[in-house]
Amino acid sequence: MPRIASLLPPAVARRHHLLERLHREGTDTYRLLHGIAEGAPGVTVDRYGGVWLVQTFRGPLPAGEVEALQQAANQALGLDLPVVCNHRGRPDPDAPAPHQPTAEALAERVCHEAGVRLPFQARHRGQDPWLFLDLRAGRAVLRAAAAGQRVLNLFAYTCSAGVMAAAAGATQVVNVDFATSALAVGARARDQNGIAAARCTLFESDCLPVLRQLAGQPVQRRGKHVPYPRIEPQPFDRIVLDPPRFAKSPFGTVDVVRDYPSLWKPALLALAPGGAILATNHVPEVSAADWHELLRRSAAKAGRPLRDLQPIALDADFPSFDGQPPLKMVWATV
Known about the structure:
Elements: H1 3-6, H2 8-14, H3 16-24, E1 29-34, E2 43-48, E3 51-56, H4 63-77, E4 83-87, H5 103-106, E5 109-113, E6 116-120, H6 136-144, E7 150-154, H7 160-167, E8 172-177, H8 180-192, E9 200-204, H9 207-214, E10 236-241, E11 246-249, E12 252-255, H10 261-269, E13 271-281, H11 288-301, E14 308-312, E15 328-333
Parallel strand pairs: 3-4, 7-8, 7-10, 8-9, 10-13
Antiparallel strand pairs: 1-2, 2-3, 5-6, 11-12, 13-15, 14-15
């Protein structure tokens, strides 16, 4: 058995209890091999419902290695699923011949998390999968606290967190993202779960002007003629704040390393009394302790001191060397 494929059986064994729980909950999406912490840096193997997704971030794998991973994954879980390999590193003309997936493997399909139906396509116009598996533990916390609540999902991407909150009984969900194609996936997820569009809305916009208006703050922009949607301040009971590491727009800069408070303060101001924020930070060089202290200090300075701040641990399919994974998540209540 090729070297990387030989890593799958022990990786599956380490996930035994997690996989049992996920299957009971109606989840068929998870990571089988987190290569950087399990002996294959630059390689991940994920299940998304009825397909295996192999991603490479350094060098591409020979087609035979991909097929060996498929065979090992199917054998370990007693399945018979097709495989797609996506190389996300730099193109290399001297690399091995790329794996050629079948048409069946490339088709759009439905995967499930906690019984919620979510569209998935192994190859599409972007690079990132439509569902980020490492955020599962955060979505679970949100689901448990969503019933009867008003939810704002910022940097929503394909709206998985918002759709899952709506499926869990949220009375109002507003998903905000600038990407038309990502919101279209979110619309399909909403419709496939029978959620009324009026209860789970999709708002195509830069998140910064939306958030600042909801918080009752002035909108900053470069140039007087840059349009943005006008909305009234409105409180939300639950807010999902999942920003990218860095992004520039006419309305400012998102920089979670140097200026997380520029997002954190208006999010707190848009939060109803007793509300909670699911916040993330994906940057490896930012320590969890430093980030938590920043959130507490910024909240106090904004006049919305935190009653509680609970770190959310990643599930066991995302192991790390030292217990300090790049993705950090908190559930913060005011």
